[in-house]
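Format notes (please read before filing issues)

Several people have asked whether sequences and structure tokens are stored in separate files. They are not. Every record keeps both together, in the order shown below: the sequence lines, then the token lines. Line labels are part of the format and must not be stripped during preprocessing.
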Amino acid sequence: MATNRRLVFSNGYIYHIFNRGIDRRSVFTGFREYLRAQELIEFYKHLETPVRYSKFLQLSKSLRDDVLREINKSETQVDILAYCLMPNHFHFMLQQKVDKGVSTFIANFTNAYTRYFNTKHERIGPMFEGIFKAVLVESDEQLIHLSRYIHLNPVVSSIINESDLNNYKWSSYHEYIAPSKNSTVSKRDLVMSMFESAKHYEKFVLDQIEYGKKLEIIKHLTLE
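Then the structure lines:
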């Protein structure tokens, strides 16, 4: 995978996007914060968002329903192929749909979440490192291995046990294994078309857990 933060995001191409809290501080510290992050992901992936999410929540239910209907009619600025929220960082695999879609989505997501977190914790200032990292996905092989890497993050980082991976609410893994109508992942089939079934994908992911843990131990030697 080619990595260059100065790369120009192109429509139709797929990117691994990741960023972390300043000084590696925790940015998602509880259920409500993870949930708000997921709500922001679902909201801001759309191209047309007539109001900020914080203002949207202040509307009456009927008005919120009207806004959601309009938003859901609009196209997305990115397709979310996979994601994972971790205590001090996040990963996305995104396909850009419109010009500046990736940059706009990440800016909207991180800015909205920072406003929410700062208000809740009575703090000021940025939450995330200034420039998010981006890697171009260049082949189908890289695509499926990246999806596995993203989905294994909670296990290889020892946040959860392997047996709990299916129940980890803050990634798209459970949407791959048991998809639902309310899925945040809009292009699960791009990865899953390379596997006979969800069970085969699950095996593909779980077979590499020990290898992933070894990589986690030495990642400080290989990442800038």
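For reference, the curators noted about this record: The mean pLDDT is 88. Residues 8-222 form a domain with the Alpha-Beta Plaits fold (CATH 3.30.70.1290).
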